[in-house]
Design goal:
Largest sheet: 2 strands, antiparallel
Strand order of the largest sheet: 1-2
Mean pLDDT: 87
Radius of gyration: 25 Å
Strand content: under 5%
Structural class: mainly alpha
Distance between the termini: 18 Å
Order of helices and strands: HHHHHHHHEEHHHHHHHHHHHHHHH
């Protein structure tokens, strides 16, 4: 199969409405987790006097942590449903509310106390366990299920239509009534009549993928290979990774945050931040090093120009100008280092954390920070994280260098031949 055929197939996968809605919908986790992680960082500043001062307020400052990362499934249900609803052109608000209710019925188990127990007053309580990362698969299912039901009823005009003059918001609410009844009844039957634990079933179904959420060597390597290879065909790697790997990575981060809230050490290092700050330095493919090489070691005008315009975005982990400007996609010069460099960095980072040479990641910080700073903050201000990040950049530089030299020499040759000063197509590079 040709490059073009493979690229077209992958493009179809990337543009799948469900994958797109999941990817865009789960982006809501980013600000929520960063806000929650701010309090994690606040409670873990490496200053003894500060820690002594903040200790009496630790329980209070832990509250935002619980209501950010620990409730991410709830936020994702609403966000994913909203994005998919907009694709189908159905009302995103009423549909999202129905999806939320379906999620609560299927994933959350109320506990009724008829009399006080263990310090709890009589009443109804719910566990937040499935509201976090471990409930993300159910969240995705409920979002798709509710949206498809609403879409079907709207397409077949099986909705209640209010007369003219009724406020639009009221009309949309009534139009969601009939599909809403079906969504809730089906959810109720599955949970209460058939006694199905959908969350456990989905966890079991995806359990083979769950291996890559463990703190293992393959968990560090395989996702990198998957994401970079997909990128080489012009498909954003996170389109594939987000729906299948993020639930496990964020579950690990959730466990770390919970451990910290209880005064314990983080228990996992295989989190999204593991890759963000120690592997994707400069963006997918660890391309900060390539921008450095282009800027400081190029002889051709084209390479030097590309280094000049891409170095600043690369410092802040934005590498689309480089990926599409060189281009790296389907480029025989850079395909190998684009995959090999981050794979080697993941292996080194795995070894460093497995041997406890660097602290585990415990907080989500803005991905646009320069690598060493983000690594330092995400590990609770461990200075060794800065060292590891710099070592990984040097590893990437070493791997990219011979391929960069071949590319630059070819550009220089073409420029000397007067070929539009190096502005050539990929076919000419080949």
């Amino acid at each position: 199969m040709s490059y073009d055929a493979i690229s077209a197939k992958m493009g179809q996968i990337a543009n799948n409405r469900y994958l797109t809605a999941i990817r865009d919908g789960m982006s809501v986790i980013i600000p929520v987790s960063i806000i929650g992680s701010f309090f994690t960082i606040l409670l873990n500043l490496p200053i003894a006097s500060w820690n002594n001062f903040i200790k009496p307020y630790a329980a209070m400052l832990s509250v935002p942590m619980y209501f950010s990362i620990n409730l991410m499934a709830i936020y994702c249900v609403f966000s994913i449903t909203s994005h998919l609803s907009k694709y189908y052109k159905v009302d995103p608000i009423s549909t999202s509310v129905l999806a939320e209710m379906s999620f609560f019925i299927l994933a959350i188990e109320p506990m009724v106390l008829n009399k006080p127990k263990a310090g709890l007053a009589a009443g109804t309580y719910v566990s937040i366990g499935n509201m976090g990362a471990q409930g993300l698969f159910t969240a995705i299912l409920c979002a798709i299920f509710a949206t498809e039901i609403v879409r079907f009823f709207n397409q077949h005009n099986l909705v209640i239509k209010m007369p003219n003059g009724v406020p639009a918001a009221v009309g949309k609410s009534f139009s969601a009534l009939i599909p809403g009844v079906l969504i809730i009844v089906v959810s109720f039957i599955l949970k209460e009549i058939f006694k199905l634990d959908i969350n456990k079933i989905l966890t079991w179904v995806f359990s083979p993928i769950g291996y890559f959420g463990r703190d293992t060597f393959l968990s560090a390597i395989i996702p990198v290979l998957l994401i970079t290879i997909v990128w080489l065909f012009g498909v954003h790697g996170m389109v594939i990774a987000t729906p299948i790997l993020y639930p496990y990575w964020y579950a690990n981060l959730n466990a770390n945050v919970t451990a910290i809230a209880h005064g314990q050490a983080p228990v996992h290092f295989m989190t999204e931040q593991f890759f963000q700050w120690f592997v994707w330095i400069g963006g997918a493919g660890a391309t900060l090093s390539l921008s450095i090489l282009l800027l400081f070691f190029s002889k051709s005008k084209f390479s030097k120009a590309m280094g000049t315009v891409t170095i600043l975005p690369a410092i802040f982990n934005i590498n689309e100008p480089l990926i599409f400007g060189i281009p790296i996609i389907m480029n025989p010069y850079f395909a190998i280092p684009f995959v090999l460099a981050p794979t080697a960095m993941a292996a080194v980072t795995y070894g460093a954390m497995k041997l406890h040479l660097v602290a585990y990641t415990r907080a989500v910080v803005a991905w646009t920070l320069p690598g060493p700073i983000g690594a330092w903050m995400s590990t609770g201000f461990d200075w060794r994280a800065i060292v590891l990040c710099i070592i990984n950049i040097l590893i990437s530089l070493t791997i990219y260098y011979p391929f960069f030299k071949m590319f630059d020499n070819n550009q220089l040759k073409l420029e000397k031949e007067g070929n539009n000063e190096g502005d050539i197509s990929l076919s000419e590079q080949k």
